[in-house]
Amino acid sequence: MISVTPSAAEEVKRLIAKEQKPDLGLRIGVKGGGCSGFSYVLQLDEANPKQYDQVFEQHGVKILVDAKSHLYLDGTTIDYKTNGLLGGGFEFQNPNAKKSCGCGSSFSA
Questions:
Q1: Residue 85 exposed, middle or buried by CB count within 10 Å (0-12, 13-18, 19+)
Q2: Residue 66 has pLDDT above 80, yes or no
Q3: How far is it, in rounded angstroms, from Cα 109 to Cα 37?
Q4: Of 27, 37, 57, 58, which is the most buried if we count CB atoms within 10 A?
Q5: What is the pLDDT of residue 108?
C-alpha cells in the first residue's frame, strides 16, 4: 500500500480543484532516470483505473499505481511540505529505496 499524509492529500485536492475536474486522482509511478536510477512520477489522471493498476483511497484522494511501479513503491508514504518563500513540494519516504539523491526526487532499489 502507498500512503498519503493529510497535508499531501490537501495539496492534491487543491490541485484537482484548480483543474476543475473533480474526477481526477493522483497517479504515482517510477521511471528510469534521475541521478540515482529511478525517478518518482506524480500526475493528476482520470480516476478510472487501467488494467493492472492498484487503487487506494485515503483522505478523500484516489491513488492509482501501475503494477510495475507498485513493486518499487509499496510501503511508501508521500507527504507535502511547505518551504516558506520557496513554495513546497512532495516528499517520499520509501522503505524500498537503498539510496536517494540529495534532492529526494530519485532513488535506487
A1: exposed
A2: yes
A3: 8
A4: 27
A5: 57
DSSP-assigned states of every residue in 15-55: HHHHHT-TTEEEEEEEEE-STTSEEEEEEEEESSPPTT-EE
Q: What CATH code would you report for 3-99?
A: 2.60.300.12
CA 8 to chain centre: 9
How far apart CA 104 and CA 50 sit, in angstroms, is: 28
Q: What is the pLDDT of residue 74?
A: 93
**Structural domain boundaries of the chain?**
3-99
- Residue linked to cell 518499487: 72
- Grid cell, residue 86, equals 520557496
Rounded Cα gap, residues 63 and 44, in angstroms: 10
3-state DSSP call for residue 64?
Answer: strand
